[in-house]
Amino acid sequence: MSFPLPPTHEALTVPEVMRALRLSRFKVYDLIRTKQLQSFTVGRSRRVPADALRTFIQDQIEEAA
């Protein structure tokens, strides 16, 4: 399954995650806050590892099955 991620990005911004999941900014931060989606900060910038996003999506697919 192919996900709409930039192929060269290892860490995604919140807006990139929002576009990939088609979710609101609030919901993405809620997923981060509840530790459902891994992230890290660099200074004041929040980043989500591309692998963490793929894992989150895969987990959601498995839960729905």
From TrEMBL:
<protein>
    <submittedName>
        <fullName>DNA-binding protein</fullName>
    </submittedName>
</protein>
<dbReference type="InterPro" id="IPR010093">
    <property type="entry name" value="SinI_DNA-bd"/>
</dbReference>
<dbReference type="InterPro" id="IPR041657">
    <property type="entry name" value="HTH_17"/>
</dbReference>
<dbReference type="GO" id="GO:0003677">
    <property type="term" value="F:DNA binding"/>
</dbReference>
<keyword id="KW-0238">DNA-binding</keyword>
<feature type="domain" description="Helix-turn-helix">
    <location>
        <begin position="12"/>
        <end position="60"/>
    </location>
</feature>
<dbReference type="Pfam" id="PF12728">
    <property type="entry name" value="HTH_17"/>
</dbReference>
